[in-house]
Design a protein that fits this description.
45% strand
Length: 383
């Protein structure tokens, strides 16, 4: 593993690749999303979907961020009740226009999350991490065509329960933050294999953690129904960004990848996404309620501060456009919109899957590509 020095990286300026000339075959079909509800737009018919069917139910998944890859690569993880579990590395074969299995790796329990190092400069090997009973770091060895386990980061403190999620600092690659059912968040120095700090972040289980564009700032959400912001330089206190009604658990959060003022969160067993502005704690910016069943995952576009994708048990993937307020110094003040949950409620793109969608990933180095998983299927959508 190359030395991880924590240097910053610039935004991805890679132009979108034109893939509209691809034709579907056994691995793909014409991308013809349903016309959205009122306020939505129909997508171009040329867009395509490519599908890989795994031997087991898929839960965790992520795109590789490595820009030097001339191909699309992603990892998927199994969701089996009994051990062992496993993961598969998939790669898009442009010549045959289909997703192919390139390698697999063992994983004792079902990985709760998979994430590749967010290296859009191509500085490091193709490295990814997984969470489960502890944190693991793997490398895809292209020469040997296999996955190598290169690190197991095991917390030896009294707080060492299974991990629900983690996030890799997008600017300081030496740091990974983990969330655990034991109420704690732990920050790891990856190169040294040591815990940088560990803190009790919530009153109950912590379900997710995410770094801001500011590498010193992260947020977490949990079973106590709160979203909290932390500064690594002053961990003696936190800022409560939001609390749900009746303390309903918050299960996922995503920080806008280009504008650190905005976050999106989803609550347990709810059909909406809540947008937050860090400059106005406790006041939701908007609630997006077009899903007809529980929302399971969200992801901000890597190249746009105003686009968000969400997926859920209603079998739909929705893309939202917030360009009306994204990037403003004061978010919608005096426009009767702070806390107005009826505004920005209509997505402008919609895709219908065959069953409940459990997860998604938006490719950091190829922002025209989204991936979703439902049941045993992983699909790449060219948007």
């Amino acid at each position: 593993m190359n030395e991880i020095d924590g240097k910053g990286q610039g935004q991805n300026d890679q132009e979108k690749q034109e893939m509209n000339d691809q034709k579907g075959d056994d691995g793909g079909k014409q991308y013809e999303p349903n016309r959205g509800r009122q306020g939505s737009s129909q997508m171009e018919n040329e867009k395509q979907v490519f599908t890989f069917k795994a031997p087991w139910t898929i839960y965790s998944m992520a795109f590789s961020s490595r820009p030097t890859n001339n191909y699309t690569r992603l990892a998927i993880g199994s969701m089996l009740d009994e051990s062992p579990n496993e993961g598969i590395i998939l790669q898009f074969d442009r010549q045959n226009e289909k997703l192919e299995k390139k390698a697999k790796f063992a994983h004792k329990y079902a990985p709760t999350k998979i994430m590749w190092i967010p290296d859009t400069n191509g500085t490091y090997p193709d490295i990814f991490a997984t969470s489960g009973e502890h944190l693991r770091i793997f490398e895809m060895d292209d020469e040997k065509g296999q996955v190598k386990l290169i690190k197991e980061l095991v917390n030896r403190s009294e707080f060492n329960c299974p991990l629900t999620s983690f996030d890799w600092n997008i600017k300081s690659h030496n740091y990974i933050g983990t969330a655990s059912i034991d109420t704690t968040c732990t920050l790891w120095e990856v190169e040294k294999d040591v815990v940088f700090t560990q803190l009790i972040a919530h009153d109950k289980e912590v379900y997710d953690i995410c770094f801001s564009q500011d590498s010193q700032i992260f947020a977490s959400v949990g079973a106590d129904g709160s979203c909290r912001q932390f500064d690594i330089r002053t961990l003696d206190h936190s800022t409560v960004l939001y609390e749900t009604d009746n303390n309903n658990p918050i299960v996922r959060l995503q920080w806008n990848k280009l504008d650190a003022n905005y976050l999106a969160i989803i609550e347990m067993d709810m059909n909406y996404i809540t947008l937050l502005d860090t400059r106005q704690p406790l006041i939701p910016l908007s609630k997006l309620k077009n899903h007809k069943n529980y929302v399971n995952a969200i992801a901000w576009a890597p190249n746009s501060s105003s686009h968000l994708c969400s997926v859920g048990d209603d079998m739909t993937a929705l893309i939202w456009d917030f360009s009306d307020f994204s990037g403003k110094q004061e978010p919608l003040n005096n426009q009767q919109s702070v806390g107005n949950h009826n505004q920005y409620q209509d997505p402008f793109l919609e895709y219908k899957a065959e069953s409940e969608i459990s997860n998604l990933s938006w490719c950091l180095s190829k922002p025209e590509q989204l991936s979703i998983c439902f049941s045993k299927n992983c699909q790449i959508l060219n948007v």
